[in-house]
Design a protein that fits this description.
By secondary structure, this protein is an alpha/beta fold. The protein has nine helices and 14 strands. It folds into three domains: 115 residues, 3-Layer(aba) Sandwich (Rossmann fold), CATH 3.40.50.2300; 85 residues, Helix Hairpins, CATH 1.10.287; 159 residues, Histidine kinase-like ATPase, C-terminal domain (Heat Shock Protein 90). The strands form three sheets. It has a six-stranded mixed β-sheet with strand order 2-3-1-4-5-6, with helices on both faces. The longest helix has 85 residues.
């Protein structure tokens, strides 16, 4: 007696889910017979059967991921297959599953536009689908399905990388904003120190005089009263300066109407000590009655920074007349606020880098390289405008441009 060794069954890696949609039972049976032993990429076929639109929509809306659908065009209606195709592509937003349309009525062939628009893989008459042709169509469709899955996976990876990149940029922006706030705090302290020096000296001097009069027993009530009044007056100046700085650096929650006169008066008050200290001559040209509907402290903050930059440009130019212009012009489309100096301009080698974070021409104690970067960020994201710096004539011009729709003439 001869014993034959039982052939080991081939191990498979899974199944291709294929849906057969047809109202003829015979079509389901033939498809099942032809694909019974079909294996592609070490995976067998698992067939699912539906016979009408309603049942097909239900199974397509389930968690089953179909690789391929054999879809009869004519079932309970002449366009049933096209109704299902539209449901797959538009309602389910499924552009991965492959679709092969089949019909026993050649006169009901879909238009070429429908085949292209709904990404239909193939169109076959049922009499054409021999075992060989059916198998060939399945292989072609499954290959296409695999390639689309790869593309989808790559899209997910790219989307994830983009999202991660966006999160990193947002985190970086928050860090930069935090650093800029710290820099602003230092700037406030420096400005207050300059602004307070003279009033504090006056207060200390008057108090010392009052103490000296007490020690010498030379007290004059009228003089004491006048001196006390001067001390109170100087103290009020310090209080007003604190309020002014806090108002300037506190972000606005909503837009308000403010005239250019009011706006620039506050700006010039904030930079006054530097203007005097550096012997700067400021030329002003703007309509004081022009009304801006905007975030006041943000515009103030930017213009103050631009003026300070212009003053800094003169720090190493002792042989120049220190002229600075503050101009504002408008047309039907936009409002332009300009700060111009005559300090020689910015080198062509670095002018394209001045808005980069951490780029500065100042020493480490004087600059962080965040001022212009954060100013442009504030203008573009909050004020719906743009900020530009360029060389012209004897120096440099910084222009803050805002859309005119937010402005009116008072």
């Amino acid at each position: 007696m001869i014993f034959t060794k039982k052939k080991k069954e081939r191990e498979i890696d899974g199944y291709w889910n294929i849906l057969v949609v047809d109202d003829e039972e015979e079509v389901h049976s033939i498809t099942s017979i032809v694909l019974k032993n079909f294996i592609f990429k070490n995976r067998k076929v698992k067939l699912y059967d539906t016979y009408n639109i309603e049942d097909t929509k239900k199974i397509l809306s389930s968690d089953i991921e179909f690789s391929l659908i054999f879809l009869d065009i004519v079932m309970e209606s002449d366009n049933a297959g096209l109704v299902i195709t539209k449901f797959i592509r538009e309602d389910l937003n499924n552009f991965i599953t492959r679709i092969i349309l089949r019909t026993g009525q050649p006169g009901n062939a879909p238009e070429q536009k429908i085949i292209i628009d709904y990404d239909i893989n193939d169109y076959k008459e049922k009499t054409e689908l021999t075992a060989t042709k059916l198998t060939t169509s399945v292989v072609s469709s499954l290959r296409s399905y695999q390639e689309l899955l790869k593309i989808k996976d790559h899209e997910k990876i790219l989307e994830q990388e983009v999202n991660e990149g966006i999160l990193r940029l947002r985190k970086k922006d928050k860090q930069l904003q935090h650093q800029e706030r710290l820099c602003q705090n230092v700037e406030i302290i420096n400005m207050l120190a300059h602004q307070w020096r003279q009033p504090l000296n006056d207060i200390v001097m008057n108090i010392n005089n009052m103490i000296l009069d007490i020690e010498l027993d030379d007290i004059n009530k009228d003089i004491f009263k006048d001196t006390s009044g001067l001390i109170l007056e100087k103290s009020q100046i310090l209080t007003d300066q604190i309020d002014g700085f806090l108002s300037h650096y506190k972000p606005d929650e909503k837009r308000i109407d403010v005239s250019l006169g009011e706006l620039f008066d506050k700006v010039l008050t904030l930079v006054d000590y530097r203007v005097v200290e550096n012997n700067i001559d400021i030329q002003k040209e703007y309509d004081k009655n022009f009304i801006i509907h905007t975030y006041e402290s943000e515009v103030e903050q930017i213009v103050v920074h631009l003026i300070n930059n212009a003053i800094d440009a003169y720090s190493k130019k002792t042989d120049l007349s220190k002229n600075l212009s503050l101009l504002c012009k408008s047309n039907e489309q936009r409002l332009v606020i300009s700060v111009a100096d005559e300090a020689g301009g910015i080198s062509d080698e670095i002018i394209d880098e001045i808005f980069d974070p951490y780029f500065t021409t100042k020493d480490e104690k004087s600059g962080t390289g965040l001022g212009l970067y954060m100013s442009r960020l504030l203008v573009e994201k909050h004020l719906n405008g743009h900020l530009d710096v360029f060389n012209k004539d004897k120096g440099c011009i910084a222009e803050l441009t805002l859309e005119i729709e937010d402005y009116s003439h008072g």
